[in-house]
Design a protein that fits this description.
Layout: E1 3-7, E2 10-11, E3 17-21, E4 24-28, E5 36-44, E6 48-58, H1 84-101, E7 125-131, E8 134-138, E9 145-147, H2 156-167, E10 174-179, H3 192-205, E11 210-216, H4 222-226, E12 231-238, H5 241-249, E13 255-259, H6 262-267, H7 269-272, E14 281-285, H8 294-303, E15 307-312, H9 315-325, E16 330-337, E17 347-353
Parallel strand pairs: 4-6, 11-12, 11-14, 12-13, 14-15
Antiparallel strand pairs: 1-5, 2-3, 3-4, 5-6, 7-8, 7-10, 8-9, 15-17, 16-17
Length: 354
């Protein structure tokens, strides 16, 4: 393998710095745009190469000392070497660039990114792995474990649970989810403060006196239940029957929650809610990182609700989906949220109108 000197031009979605050598893109983790670095080429492909950082020759003013002793080895965090304000700037830019490059959107109505009140100690849930007496997270770019005593981005209650787990004799190999509080074992956002900010944002985007809310990938009804007063009827769809069961436990007469394949449920919406008015209908979609399937995108275009709110954890698949929806919907606003400080993850809320 060879060592090269590179000038970092950008930070790509996923967290790696981007440089060029003889016209070919070279990805280098733990770097910041504007830096000059030495890096070792470890994988070379036809279109790009991957490298490991050897030395920072000219550092960015945004470079800071990471707070975690495992940073650089653990695969969880990508940005602890970057000041928090600059992390926000990078993520905002990555969302805009993905929508322009992949979604072919020219004038993206970007709003300021919503930051996390806590940059460390915010995670209310982690999943650790145990194997051959080692308890921790996977190393970066591998399936080997690194032993973790404490995770600085996790809440104190989670770290206490981790410490307790580590004291147990004869631990069985496997995966262990540690939570800050007890409750239904269903999906929920791990940064409570930013999740609440997202809920409040959506509440402000949705008009009052609506007829129907369709909340797809609704989980336990986090958004639907916050918006009840604005709708005559609410329908929640999710594949997770445990989440749907939790949503049904305190449901009002106007709420219906359906467990099953969301793609199939979209195809049946006309029969589920045959008499709704398109002008007084809001659709919220919060799909997994893979985004919306082609069938769901087509169903949304056919349904054409007056208001569509798309919540995404993956800007590239969001951009792909928005490109397909562009013929029917106009984007009113794009709001990034920093749900996961110190990591390369980005949450985005897009408000569209038909």
């Amino acid at each position: 393998m060879r060592i090269v000197d590179l000038k970092i031009a950008d930070v790509a979605f996923g967290g790696k710095g981007v440089a060029r050598e003889n016209g070919k893109a070279v990805f280098v983790p733990y770097t910041i745009e504007g830096e000059t670095v030495s890096a070792e080429i470890v994988r070379e492909k036809k279109q790009f190469a991957e490298a490991e950082l050897v030395d920072v020759k000219e550092s960015s003013p945004h470079r800071v000392t990471p707070e975690c002793p495992y940073f650089g080895r653990c695969g969880g965090c990508a940005y602890q070497h970057i000041s928090y304000e600059h992390q926000l700037a990078i993520k905002w830019r990555q969302v805009r660039d993905a929508l322009q490059r992949i979604g072919k959107l020219k004038d993206v109505p970007m709003r300021p990114i919503i930051p996390s009140p806590k940059q460390y100690g915010y995670r209310s849930r982690i999943t650790v792995h145990a194997q051959d007496g080692v308890i921790g997270f996977f190393r970066r770019d591998s399936h080997r474990l690194i032993d973790i005593e404490r995770c600085p981005i996790s809440r104190d209650e989670v770290n206490r649970a981790l410490a307790e787990l580590r004291t147990q004799p004869h631990m069985s190999d496997g995966h262990y989810t540690l939570r800050a509080s007890s409750g239904p074992r269903v999906f929920s956002q791990t940064n409570e403060a930013v999740a609440n900010a997202l809920r409040d944002l959506i509440d402000n985007l949705v008009a009052s006196d609506q007829q129907l809310l369709i909340d797809a990938y609704c989980g336990a009804g986090f958004f639907a239940k916050a918006l009840l007063d604005k709708f005559e009827r609410v329908i929640g769809l999710d594949w997770d029957r445990f989440a749907i069961e939790a949503a049904r436990q305190n449901a009002t007469a106007k709420e219906s929650y359906i467990a099953g394949d969301v793609d199939l449920a979209f195809g049946r919406l006309r029969s589920i809610a045959p008499a709704f008015e398109r002008e007084r209908t809001t659709l919220i979609v919060d799909p997994p990182a893979t985004g919306l399937s082609a069938d769901v995108r087509k169903a949304i275009v056919d349904l054409a609700p007056a208001t569509l709110i798309y919540i995404s954890c993956n800007p590239p698949t969001l951009a792909r989906d928005l490109k397909d929806l562009a013929d029917k919907f106009t984007i009113d606003s794009v709001t990034p949220l920093d749900m996961f400080p110190q990591t390369a993850e980005i949450e985005v809320a897009v408000h569209l109108q038909a």
